TrEMBL record:
Pfam families: Trp_Tyr_perm (PF03222). It comes from Muribacter muris. GO terms for molecular function: aromatic amino acid transmembrane transporter activity. Involved in transporting aromatic amino acids across the cytoplasmic membrane. It comes from the Bacteria. This is Aromatic amino acid permease. The keyword Transmembrane applies. Signal peptide: none annotated. Belongs to the amino acid/polyamine transporter 2 family. Mtr/TnaB/TyrP permease subfamily. Its main location: membrane.
């Protein structure tokens, strides 16, 4: 395998393994290990399918074409506007989730300032100022710090697994769901955990439009997170009974609550501390990648309307809305990921299906076509639209709410 192909696969894996992974135990505590694995595999198959649709699209596009350009090719200015708007809203939701999650972790290391709520707000402000500064300075600074943090994150993850897996109880793994409908409620949050589709244009450009290499990168790059997620679920579900998990998370439904739950169940401060470190690193690396994407998307949007904003102004536009969300909704990590899942479902499922459907009509003889035909496109579309409406069904009381 060529280095570029392997490197692209690792970029897919690195983009995917992040903050969304941390929300999995929070949202699957009442589902049980068995159904959680079923959900993971089903969503992996769905998002692999949708990513390969982009590979199909790039057979008939320039190697440096962005997703907005692809949408404009098949649906004109309307397609570009809608795809760009959804992308920016999606990235705002993700950055909001990561600032909210980061504040709960940073707050655990700070002394109490007036009260817990004030401490959380100060933590959110510190998280945004420190790591947002790398975005404003430039991509090179993000690259340097991200390499260091990503390497440390992988080492921390392996250490967490080594500490937790020997304490796994098969009795915990065999517990049945407290409500089968929770698997539906959790789907938008799990859905974002396989999200790397915004990076596909960059990967295609890096691979010089080699769609075969892009296909291999996607298949390998998404398989690595699937294995990591299954091991993560095995570790967390295996050491925590549903009763213990739900009782602790009911008091603190945040990432800090997850670390507290693991520490209490294993009676090990070392394990709890290691989980906190891994959680913080996963959030930071996800935050850096997503925030950089949002910063550049806003810069490109302003340039299109002839507004030349400086990096400081772009930084304020990038970080003030997510920071406000974290300050006034400090426990909104899971909720923000759920609504990000709505935007991502459109961006990663509905949009590529719509473009491929039209492209197949215009160019029926292209060499590569994702298997399944029109039937697979329709099934994937129905699932994607359903994931979009799940949070509304939950808010209406038609589906149970997940923890958080």
């Amino acid at each position: 395998m060529k280095n570029k192909t392997l490197g692209s696969a690792l970029i897919v894996a690195g983009t995917t393994i992040g903050g969304g992974m941390l929300a999995m135990p929070l949202t699957s505590a009442g589902i049980g290990f068995g159904l959680t694995i079923v959900l993971l595999i089903a969503l992996w198959l769905l998002l692999c399918f949708s990513a390969l649709l982009f590979v199909e699209l790039y057979q008939n596009a320039d190697s440096d074409a962005g997703i907005g350009t692809l949408a404009e090719k098949y649906y004109g200015t309307f397609g570009r506007v809608i795809s760009t708007a959804v992308l920016i809203i999606f990235l705002y939701a993700l950055v909001s989730a990561y600032v909210s999650g980061g504040s709960s972790i940073i707050a655990a290391f700070l002394p109490t300032i007036v009260d817990a709520e004030t401490t959380s707000r100060v933590a959110g402000l510190l998280f945004t100022l420190v790591f947002g500064a790398f975005i404003i300075i430039g991509t090179s600074s993000v690259d340097v710090v991200n390499r260091l943090l990503f390497t440390t994150k992988i080492l921390a993850f392996l250490l967490v697994l080594c500490l937790l897996l020997p304490k796994v109880s098969f009795e915990n793994l065999l517990e049945i769901p407290i409500d089968n409908a929770l698997i539906i409620s959790a789907s938008p949050i799990f859905f974002t955990s396989f999200g790397f589709h915004g990076s596909i244009p960059s990967l295609n450009k890096y691979l010089d439009g080699n769609v075969k290499a892009l296909r291999i990168s996607i298949l390998i790059g998404t398989s690595i997170p699937l294995v990591a997620y299954i091991l993560w679920q095995l570790a967390t579900h295996g050491v925590l009974s549903q009763g213990e998990f739900l009782a602790i998370l009911d008091k603190d439904p945040t990432l800090n609550g997850l670390a507290t739950a693991v520490s209490a169940a294993t009676d090990s401060a070392i394990i709890g501390g290691t989980v906190r470190i891994f959680s913080a690193l996963a959030l930071i690396t996800s935050f850096l990648g997503v925030a950089l994407g949002l910063f550049e998307a806003l810069e490109d949007l302003l340039k299109r309307v002839n507004i030349n904003a400086g990096r400081a102004s772009l930084g304020l536009l990038t970080f003030l809305p997510p920071l406000a969300f974290a300050l006034f909704y400090p426990q909104g990590f899971v909720a923000a990921l759920g609504y990000a899942g709505q935007m991502f479902a459109f961006y990663a499922i509905v949009l590529p299906i719509a473009m491929v459907w039209k492209m197949r009509q215009q160019f029926p003889d292209l060499a590569y076509r994702v298997k399944g035909g029109s039937t697979a496109l329709i099934i994937a579309l129905v699932i994607g639209v359903f994931i979009v409406i799940v949070p509304f069904l939950t808010e209406a009381g038609l589906l149970p709410k997940v923890v958080g």
